[in-house]
Amino acid sequence: MTTTALAPEELLLEQRKPEGITKVSIIVSKGTLEGIYPGLIMANGARMEGIDANLFFTFFGMDAITKRKMDKVKVATVGNPALGVSALLGIIPGMSAFVTRQMAKKMEELDIPPIPEFIQLIADSGAKLYACKASVDMFGLTQEDFVDTLEGILTVGEFYEKAAGGQIIFT
Amino acid sequence: MTTMTLASKDLEVDAEGFLAHAEQWDESVARAIAKDAGIEPLTDRHWLVIKFMRERFLTAGTAPSIRTLGKESGVPIKELYQLFPKGPAKLAAKIGGIPKPKGCI
Question: Of all residues in chain B, what percent carry a pLDDT higher than 90?
């Protein structure tokens, strides 16, 4: 009799143990600062854990990888009740820029890079960056409008192919 | 905490195999941890990163972020991931005998 053999019920538990995540495909669909960062932080965090990561930018989320827009992304001060700024104050010209500056300062203290640097870091870490074909066509953009690290422009179907075998996260 | 034998020493480690006492570390322990993690041999470039992580932790009390690692260790991000494919900050900390980095970046 061996003492290491597992009883049938133990064997079943062993087989049901969740496997670790080995690949994530993260969709970034919003173009505000607070809409873009979570996806970037999750992609970078995945790579730091040795998890493969794809980033798929769609609609205004593409601002994060559009050369002339990526350093101009702002916090939404209108329609953002969590910010605690009254709706009327939120519309004051410069309010969004002000709140964005405050947040950028805080993030720099926490060693969170600005978007252009963060995109470069994530690409260098081996994550793959893609833009959504439908959005690219809709906004009249071409590959030249995007950062050089963009891997390609994908249809939804091609995105699902790239995402196969991993988890998909929509932000 | 459990005890693990690394480089013929019985050392206390946490659930993920990070050393519980940074002062018990030496280069032979580093080589043993690296071997377990599938990194062998440790090159000069690996050592540069490992020692940067360790020194930064011992002086600042926290391990540097991946951003700082890429900017200040002397090894750029791309190469960091070639040296430590399963996560440069985490693995360099583990091999360097310091706790797992706590930050999200």
Answer: 83
Q: Report the gap between the CA of B87 and the closest CA in chain A (Å).
A: 4
Domains and CATH numbers, chain B: 2-95 (1.10.10.370)
Q: Look at residues B69, B73, B64 and name the one whose alpha carbon lies nearest to residue B98.
A: B64
To which residue do tokens 């540069």 refer? B48
ipTM of the complex: 0.91
User: A81-121 pLDDT, tens per residue?
Assistant: 888 888 888 889 999 999 999 999 999 999 999 999 999 99
Measure in Å the smallest separation between the Cα of A115 and chain B Cα atoms: 13
- Supply the pTM of this predicted model: 0.89
Please check whether residue B88 touches A, CB under 8 A.
Answer: yes
Amino acid identity of B13? V
Contacts of A48 in chain B (CB under 8 A): 66, 87-90
